[in-house]
Amino acid sequence: MQYRQLGRSGVRVSEVGLGTGGQWGGLVDQEAAIRIIWAALDQGVNYVDTADIYGTWYRGTSLSEEYVGNALEGIRHRVILGTKGYNPTGEDVNDWGASRHHLMRALEASLRRLRTDYVDLYQIHKFDETTPMEETMRTLDDMISAGKVRYIGASNYAAWQICRCNDLAERYGWASFITTQAHHNLLEREAEAELIPFCREMRVGLLPYFPLAAGLLAGRYEPSEPPPPDSRAAAFERTRRYLARYATPEGYAALQRLSAWADERGHTLAELAIAWLLAEPIVACVIVGASKPEQMTENAQAAEWRLSPDDLAEIERLLKANEDEEGE
Ligand SMILES: NC(=O)c1ccc[n+]([C@@H]2O[C@H](COP(=O)([O-])OP(=O)(O)OC[C@H]3O[C@@H](n4cnc5c(N)ncnc54)[C@H](OP(=O)(O)O)[C@@H]3O)[C@@H](O)[C@H]2O)c1
User: Fold this and answer.
1) Residues 6 or more apart from 82 whose CB is under 8 A from it?
2) Which atom of ligand 1 is nearest to the CA of 235?
3) What is the structure's pLDDT at 184?
4) What confidence score (pLDDT) does residue 321 get?
5) Which residue minimizes the CA distance to atom 10 of ligand 1?
6) Is position 54 annotated as part of the catalytic site?
7) Is residue 325 part of a domain?
8) Do 177 and 143 contact (CB within 8 A), yes or no?
9) Of the listed 47, 54, 151, 157, which one is catalytic?
């Protein structure tokens, strides 16, 4: 495993990290969570990503944070641990958002579930249009001063929102966002228009999520076949809706071309999807979800594959072959 700086901080994270959303709390129970975390550590993975919303869909509390906290008992120091706050945690009008009121309570609850007294990377899950940015940034800076948070990150923010927040932080001498999470993979390229150029310029580390398009880029689903019974799409209507956006006839045709190209080089489609993300230097860590230890092991090994500029051009050509055919 190789390591990269987490944005412009001094801390290093593994190029592949472990995401604990999806089936954590359902198919992934506490025992499975421990096995997956150990599979990650065995491969040199040191970044684990969770959120106070993950696993709440099974039982109204973040089972993902609980499982991660239990699994890290005694080995907490080996992991750079990221969690997130913003999403609703209760019925009250103030039980969501990036206000001081909500974030302070959300962080305390995350720390309790994670059985730790600090989070390495505390991320605001989504931009809150109703809370002044100064209030959020000042609150995050206070969390760092209190020793409960080491670094802060954004998630699902537009480039201008991170830019404005970090400018305010700089003006007042507060900590600024060192990372952001964004939906980015071979099939979802919107981040390339503005966010990635901004991150490169300002050295904000990118943590791409859905790197495998929820399993589609790992060959988990076949066209016109029902999802495998142990898969995420079988478990969640929202995963089926997500897949419907990308699992089109054109999407599958592109995946077939990419799979064959990876196979000729002795790699899988999942390895290609991860290696492609790592070809972008501003990517600090690719957070890949795993619901089985062997998935974690395979994903961690993808980081060994370095794509050349010629490879990247060929991948682009294979992705766009559908459009070329339509244009002819
Ligand atoms: N900031 C945000 O708003 C946000 C949003 C989404 C996700 N995230 C983070 O990003 C992480 C990754 O995203 P994700 O888990 O949603 O999607 P993902 O990484 O694109 O896909 C993970 C799924 O792909 C399948 N998979 C993984 N490795 C595989 C392999 N080697 N072979 C075959 N199948 C494999 C598994 O599906 P099955 O379970 O069906 O086997 C797994 O659940 C999350 O866990 C979370 O930490 C953040």
Assistant:
1) 47, 48, 49, 50, 119, 120, 121, 122, 123, 153, 207
2) 40
3) 98
4) 84
5) 209
6) yes
7) no
8) no
9) 54
DSSP code of 106? Answer: H
Whether 263 is covered by a domain: the verdict is: no
Regarding the beta carbon of 205 and ligand 1, being less than 6 Å apart is answered: no
pLDDT of residue 60: 85
Task: Please work out whether the CB of residue 271 comes within 6 Å of at least one atom of ligand 1.
Answer: no
What is the model's pLDDT at position 326?
A: 55
- CA 8 to centroid of ligand 1, rounded, Å: 26
Domain containing 16 — which CATH number? Answer: 3.20.20.100
Q: What is the domain extent for residue 221?
A: 3-248+269-305
317 falls within a domain: no
25 C-beta closer than 6 A to ligand 1? no
Q: Is residue 227 part of a domain?
A: yes
Q: Structure tokens of 135?
A: 């209030």
pTM for the predicted model, two decimal places: 0.96
For the chain, 328 residues long, the average pLDDT of each consecutive 10-residue run is 97 98 94 98 98 92 96 97 96 96 98 98 98 98 98 98 98 98 97 98 98 96 92 95 91 94 96 98 98 96 94 96 62
Cα 219 to chain centroid distance, Å, stands at: 19
Domain count, the chain: 1
Atom of ligand 1 nearest to the CA of 288: 19
Largest CA distance in the chain: 62
